[in-house]
Structure formats: C-alpha cells, structure tokens
Write a structure and sequence with these properties.
This protein is of the alpha+beta class and 192 residues long. The chain has a single domain, classed as Cyclophilin (Beta Barrel), CATH 2.40.100.10. Helix content is 20%, strand content 31%. A hairpin with a 3-residue loop joins strand 3 and strand 4.
Length: 192
C-alpha cells in the first residue's frame, strides 16, 4: 500500500508542470557551468517527451558535447568521453513543420540532432549559437524537413558560448570534437 502511494505521488509530481500549464525545465550541469533549458511540450510534445525520458533515466549523465562548431551550434547527448557512442531508444518522428507556432532554429534554442533521415533522432541534441534558418522546416522531403526545435536556453547562454569557444580537433571519423572533453555531469528536470 505504501509503495502504491509513493508511486502515485511520484506520478503526480512528474505531471505537475503540465497540469499547471507550466513548461518543464531541464538543468544541464556541465564542466563549463550550468545551462537551464525550458521545453515547449505544446509545440513538440513527442520530442519533449523523448528528451525528458532520457533525462529521467540519467542517460545524459557523463555524456559530452562531442561536436562544437563556432558560429553554428554545440551538440551533445550521445557520446561518452573517448567518442564512445551510447545506444539510445528507438528514433522518434520529426515534429518540425511549417505551423505558425513552430519554433525556429534561432540563437539559444535546443533542437534534436539526427542523421540525413529526417525521422532518425534519438538522444542527441544541439543548442544553436546563432540563428540557423537553413535548419528550419522547408518541406516534407528528405532534404527539407529540418531539425525540430523543442525549447530554449533560459539560463547559462554564457556557458553555451564558453563551450562554443573551445578548441576542437578531429578524432577518428569525427570532426569538431573538443580537445578537452566538455562533460554533462548531470541532467535533471527542475520545477519551473
């Protein structure tokens, strides 16, 4: 009985931001400082659900920002130090579209990374360090689908900029890898 009450309480607490109309926030504790992102479940519900699943499972803890391109973006969420890839869940459908309320790839937004297949995003994400309209939805085609934005940085853009400024190198088949690992020590859902 006590276990059932605790489970019910945990479910209520996890759903509280959505029930209150609030937007979930995630704190990324990195070796360069703290970044807080606010997510947009109304705009990209499945993408936000996917990201929060990884956060709650602790998947991002210990991963690195493995791709850093100045005046473009910083990417993380799928590699461990040494460029060891983590295995994520099944890919999700790309929610990018031309809807009026869809978020664009502007400076400070967070979006899902993917392969050339528009519906291949799993755990990896990136934070735009400048406006990147070429990454926005153009058409429902392989080349035009774009990258789904599902939130924005609300605290720690200075940390994003510090990460963006690190020196990079090539490692194996990967380019733009920070010379000194920038680690996401912990990712946690916080109450807005």
């Amino acid at each position: 009985m006590t276990r059932l009450v605790l489970v019910a309480l945990a479910l209520v607490l996890m759903a509280a931001p959505a029930l209150a109309g609030g937007k979930p926030q995630v704190r990324l504790e990195t070796t360069k400082g703290l970044i807080v992102v606010e997510l947009e479940p109304r705009v990209a519900p499945k993408t936000v659900e996917n990201f929060l699943r990884y956060v709650r499972e602790g998947f991002y803890n210990g991963t690195i920002f493995h791709r850093v391109i100045k005046d473009f973006m910083i990417q993380g969420g799928g590699m461990m130090p040494g460029m060891i890839q983590k295995t994520g869940h099944e890919p999700i459908r790309n929610e990018a579209s031309d809807d009026d309320d869809m978020l664009l790839n502007t400076k400070g937004t967070i979006a899902m990374a993917r392969t050339s297949n528009p519906h291949s995003a799993t755990s990896q994400f990136f934070i735009n360090t400048k406006d990147n309209p070429s990454l926005d939805f153009q058409s429902r085609s392989r080349r035009g689908w774009g990258y789904c934005v599902f939130g924005r940085v609300i605290k720690g853009m200075d940390v994003v900029e510090r990460i963006e400024a690190v020196s990079t190198m090539a490692v194996g088949g990967h380019r733009d890898v920070p010379r000194r690992a920038v680690v996401i020590e912990r990712a946690v859902v916080v109450t807005p």
